[in-house]
Amino acid sequence: MDRPSREQTAASSIDPASVFDLLPDAYLILDERRVVVLANARYLSVLGVTLAEIQGRSVYDINQFGSEQQRNERRAWLGDALDNLVPGEMRLSPLLRYDMAAGGLEASRPDVRYWQIKASMMPGGAAQGRLIALCVLDVTASIAANERNQRERAKLRSQARLRQILVEEATAQLRDHQEQFQQALAFAHVGAWELDPSTGAIDCTAQCKANLGLPSDVALDEHRFFTELVYPDDRARVRETMLHAIENREPFEVEYRVVWPAQSVHWILVRAAGRYLGDGTLKSMLGFTLDITRRKEAELEQQAIAQAEKRAREESDRAARAMDHFVTAVSHELRSPLGAILSWTALLQRAGDASHVVRVTDVIERNARQLSHMVDDLLDSGAIATGKLSVNRQPVDLGALAGNVAEDIRMKAEAKGLRLKADDIRSCLVMADESRMKQVVWNLLSNAVKFSASGTVELVVGVNGDKAELSVRDSGSGIEAEALGRIFERFEQIGAEGAGRVGGLGLGLWLVKHLVDLHDGSVFAESAGRGQGATFHVLLPLYQ
Q: Reduced to 3 states, what is the DSSP secondary structure of residue 451?
């Protein structure tokens, strides 16, 4: 026979039931009522049942393993695969977990099982109607293998992917560390920064900008830092410190002030160090900023307290020395006129010539008046110190008053060889206590005469804006610049070097200042220095 005839004869001799039984996949044949008609050997082996146990039974009722929930899920799963199935259609169900009893499983298989079915309606007619073929697939092993493959693939990633993951993990870890570091810096109010010397750009943290009084979204560079942020008085010092550190390739630390937008002044501490290339070129500068305003304010306050205590000690020592000088001066000043009065009184008692009486009485009167002035000054100083001195202010012509005092003191000035000028005196009405204002003018003129060995003493009275101004200018010993601030203090006497002791209690200018203050005025002195003379100015409100 030829070959096609032999193949046709062989095919006609094959038993379809035997072929069905030899199929490698597990199959069930159902009728239209979903009743089991036939099962092949693979199905019976996989499910661990016999054909007699399942044949003639509904597919929904056989193989009832697992929990009730799983059985209900299996029923729904079968229904989805079989309902409304049409001839020629093939359906593939989703995966279903349906656990089998351990006794019906192969020893090497677990209880947990996953299933999938392919359902198709067979063509052609049969006595029992159209048949449905179900291919039951136990995919547990494939799922397990797939999971193993996934795990293996995860373990056996390519080196490139592994390096990428390691880099990503390292980057993420570094980012976490950076965030933690920045949080720690922010908690401590420490800001970090880096300066690029080639561009002048400063890359800094938000806390660094906050320390400088800047919003976090504002760009910062070296030019803006020095021209806008650093306090003008500190700029040269900060720049010099940075340049010195770069030149010597060493870290540096500097404190400076910044003014925030609200005009509050803050103290900032900067510590930094440079990073250098192999040839010594500065690559960048790294550092941090710390707002030390509270600490600095406390430090400055302590310094101010220390300075105040030092000044207080110096003032106390100076006051003690001044008091010693005052006691000595009082003793001498009182003793001199008293001695003169006693001596001339004794002479008067012995003198038989009447012509000497006038001279004696003049000397006694002059020394008594000097004693009276000193006693008045002492009494007035005590009243001022206790706040008991008062003034009775009335309209007074300051020019006329000053002219009268000048005439009273002219004889004293001329006796010393001085020229007293009182030509430039204008009428100025002020509200003043006449006797106290005379005391002011007298003390200023007598001081000028006292400290001038020769030359001129000039009195000027006029109007300066809305003030009456009285000036006393002399060509005497002058006052050093550092002494100008002390001459109005109590018991203070500033005399010419080498001139010896100058008479007086050191109360005259102190009394002048307080009397002028009681008249709502002001007094100040000017001098070009030793030997250049001095000028005293008194300003009083004009009477309106």
A: coil
CATH value of 390-541 in 1.10.10.200, 3.40.190.10, 3.30.565.10, 3.90.1150.10: 3.30.565.10
Dump pLDDT digits (tens) for 9-52: 545 556 776 778 888 888 999 988 999 999 998 899 888 899 99
**Placement of tokens 């359906």 in the chain:** 91
Q: How far apart are CA 96 and CA 426, in angstroms?
A: 122
Do 3-150 and 297-389 show the same overall fold? no
For residue 26, with 0-12 CB atoms within 10 Å meaning exposed, 13-18 middle and 19 or more buried, which class applies? buried
- Note whether 268 and 257 are within 8 A (CB): yes
Q: How many residues does the chain have?
A: 544
CATH topology of domain 188-291: Beta-Lactamase (3.30.450)
The CATH number corresponding to 297-389 among 3.90.198.10, 3.40.50.300, 3.30.420.40, 1.10.287.130 equals 1.10.287.130
Q: Provide the token pair at 156.
A: 């056996």
Q: H-helix or E-strand containing 334?
A: helix 293-350
**Do 64 and 78 contact (CB within 8 A), yes or no?**
no
Distance CA 286, CA 242 (A): 12
Residue whose entry in the numeric block shows the structure tokens 């965030």? 179
Distance of CA 291 to the CA centre of its chain: 4
Angle at 152 between CA 151 and CA 156, to 5 degrees: 125
Q: What angle do CA 384, 385, 386 make, to 5 degrees?
A: 90
CA torsion through residues 229, 233, 234, 237, sign = positive
**Rounded to whole angstroms, how far apart are CA atoms 38 and 21?**
10
- Token pair recorded at residue 27: 């199959």
Strand ranges (DSSP E) for 31-146? 36-39, 90-92, 96-97, 114-121, 132-138
Please report, as a single letter, which amino acid is at residue 15: D
Question: How high is the mean pLDDT in each 10-residue block of the chain (544 residues)?
Answer: 54 67 88 90 89 91 87 91 87 86 49 86 64 88 81 71 78 77 64 88 86 87 88 91 90 89 87 88 88 84 88 77 56 57 65 61 64 62 64 90 90 89 92 90 90 91 93 90 80 53 64 90 90 92 88
As a whole number of angstroms, the distance between CA 534 and CA 415 comes to: 21
What pLDDT shows up at residue 183?
Answer: 66
Question: What is the sign, positive or negative, of the torsion defined by CA atoms of 41, 44, 50, 52?
Answer: negative
% pLDDT > 70, the chain: 75
Tokens at 194, concatenated: 């880096």
Predicted pLDDT at 498: 40
Class of domain 3-150: alpha beta
Cα distance between residue 408 and residue 392, in whole Å: 23
Strands 419-421 and 456-464: parallel
In this predicted structure, what is the pLDDT of residue 241? Answer: 92
One-letter amino acid for residue 257 of the chain: R
Sign of torsion over alpha carbons 449, 455, 459, 463: negative
Please state, in angstroms and rounded to a whole number, the distance separating the CA atoms of residues 382 and 174. 78
